[in-house]
Amino acid sequence: MPSSNARALDKAKTLPCDALILDLEDAVAPDAKEAAREAACDAARSGEYGRRELTIRINGIGTPWHDEDLRAVAAAGPDAIVVPKVGSADEVRSLVGAMEAAGAPARTTLWAMVETPGAILRVEEIASASERLSVLVMGTNDLVKELYAEHVPGRQPLLAGLGLALLGARAAGKVILDGVYNDVKDTEGFLAECTQGRQLGFDGKTLVHPGQVAGANEAFAPSEQAVEEARGILQAWEDGKGSGVVTYNGKMIENLHVESARRVLTMHEAVTALEADAS
Ligand SMILES: CC(C)(COP(=O)(O)OP(=O)(O)OC[C@H]1O[C@@H](n2cnc3c(N)ncnc32)[C@H](O)[C@@H]1OP(=O)(O)O)[C@@H](O)C(=O)NCCC(=O)NCCSC(=O)C[C@H](O)C(=O)O
Ligand SMILES: [Mg+2]
């Protein structure tokens, strides 16, 4: 959300989302940048956002606002500093050095947005460049722009980039979030894109409007059917203890499927705990 929008900053305190990205970059006009920076830093210090991870997206490397954004935001100590248009492993190391020099607390991590062709081709290097980099975020608007592509249902023009970014993130063992869906009134298109993002392997989706939160939560949390199947797989594995392979509902189950089932149940437990916490 734009850090220049006081109503949005207030509304964020009530939204059932896992994380907030308070923006200083594209959603903030040049003459509002300084006031937005102050508002975002105040929000990070306020302690008013509960269990939600509070992150701040600063302006990109080389822009007139970047250095001061980084200094001020690092000192405010959000959960993460989100940097747009990160292009290389060297940039990641230099950002981490600048965070340390500015006194960012140890808990403040770096989230890197990958949204240029060069970044997509170097995602694994970027993702592996520092332990402090915890999350990658797809910037699908900028990527579409840089590719001279078009936003179309099913995202066919972006599939190569999304796939490469996922491969790089997973090879480095990092979390990766899907890009935003711009049409805040198109619920059907948004839900289809959430489902596609989950099926591709993304850990979650970045959003631009409160009306998108419930749909994303539903799409990325394991469904009742997935939880039931995961429990069934674990039971079948337990019943066939000692065999390297069993079947469940007619399907072959090996150790790797058991690991996936455990991951589904762990995620389900985490979502259930968050829901209980929020109610
Ligand atoms: C897209 C919007 C400009 C739509 O704004 P608007 O028409 O004013 O929305 P509503 O009237 O429906 O708003 C209803 C209430 O919800 C609050 N609101 C709106 N958006 C947000 C939000 N993102 N977070 C929190 N709260 C929000 C409004 O204030 C209303 O509140 P109230 O009056 O109290 O009921 C607008 O939604 C918007 O600005 N969205 C975010 C834009 C943004 O942050 N863009 C940058 C991120 S996208 C990106 O980075 C792309 C990436 O880099 C890439 O390359 O892909
Ligand atoms: Mg962008």
From TrEMBL:
InterPro entries referenced in this protein's UniProt entry, alphabetically: Aldolase/citrate-lyase_domain, Citrate_lyase_beta/mcl1/mcl2, Pyrv/PenolPyrv_kinase-like_dom, Pyrv_kinase-like_dom_sf
Binding-site positions, substrate: 57, 115
GO biological process, one term: oxaloacetate metabolic process
Alphabetical keyword list: Lyase, Magnesium, Metal-binding
Pfam families: HpcH_HpaI
Residues involved in Mg(2+) binding: 115, 142
Alphabetical list of SUPFAM superfamilies matching this protein: Phosphoenolpyruvate/pyruvate domain
Cofactors: Mg(2+)
GO molecular function, one term: lyase activity
Gene3D superfamilies: Phosphoenolpyruvate-binding domains
Protein name (record): CoA ester lyase
